[in-house]
Design goal:
The chain is mainly alpha-helical. 72% of the residues lie in helices and 5% in strands. The protein folds into two domains: 65 residues, Orthogonal Bundle (Arc Repressor Mutant, subunit A); 139 residues, Four Helix Bundle (Hemerythrin (Met), subunit A), CATH 1.20.120.530. It has a three-stranded antiparallel β-sheet. Helix 1 packs across helix 3 and helix 4 runs antiparallel to helix 10. It is globular and about 55 Å long.
Length: 219
């Protein structure tokens, strides 16, 4: 089956996990997915393996694939690392930010603002993800980029929870503006500080929510 079809199925399953249509611990079978997407089992198997590689699925012998169930401790540890590493990547990027890059950040921010105005959560996640990704994609540190990419894949689905549980758009947009202005001045320390504050707040909101559902998110 063409790669484009496999990628479409892969993205569809990942979205279902990301937006809570498939819950932590829920079982996925090749048979059901093959019928649902009208695709061969080998194609479905490839997609499931890719999702396992991203940490979204867990495989166990005789039990098959299930949506990964990260503990609250694991999520918190990942966010601790993300806060430290992404803030540092933001500093590195800001210190050498060009006018063209700052203009690109403003464009991404405009997309985030449109999504917030329409309360379009999927659009927000898309543009907000691109905003954050910009900093580790442009930090000129390949190992840092690889580490952050791996961490973000493991917690990608939690972005929907974070923005869905409370109206955080205004505060997030305000911090984005601070980061952009710091980049315009090539003030790495200010950009790093703003990003660290931003991610600390996100982590706090998420942790408070997860602890309310110990069945879905074990300690």
């Amino acid at each position: 089956m063409p790669n484009s079809v496999r990628e479409t199925i892969f993205e569809a399953i990942r979205e279902e996990i990301t937006y809570g249509e498939l819950l932590p611990g829920e079982r996925l079978t090749e048979k059901d997915l093959s019928e649902k997407f009208k695709a061969s089992r080998s194609t479905i198997r490839e997609c499931l393996r890719l999702l396992e590689g991203e940490g979204l699925l867990t495989y166990a012998s005789n039990k098959g694939y299930r949506v990964s169930k990260l503990s609250i401790k694991q999520v918190e540890e990942i966010y601790d690392l993300r806060r430290i590493l992404e803030s540092y990547a933001t500093r590195l990027t800001a210190e050498k930010a060009t006018k063209a890059q700052v203009a690109h950040l403003r464009k991404l921010q405009a997309g985030c603002r449109r999504a917030a105005d329409k309360s379009d959560l999927k659009l927000w996640i898309r543009d907000n993800s691109q905003f954050h990704k910009f900093f580790y994609e442009n930090c000129d540190n390949d190992n840092l980029r690889l580490l952050l990419d791996t961490l973000k894949r493991r917690i990608y689905r939690y972005q929907y929870i974070i923005i869905n549980i409370s109206d955080q758009f205004t505060s997030y947009l305000e911090v984005h503006d601070l980061i952009i202005e710091a980049c315009a001045k090539q003030d790495g320390r200010a950009a790093e500080k703003a990003m660290k504050t931003h991610l600390s707040h996100i982590q706090k909101v998420l942790m408070e929510y997860l602890k309310k559902f110990p069945g879905l998110y074990p300690v």
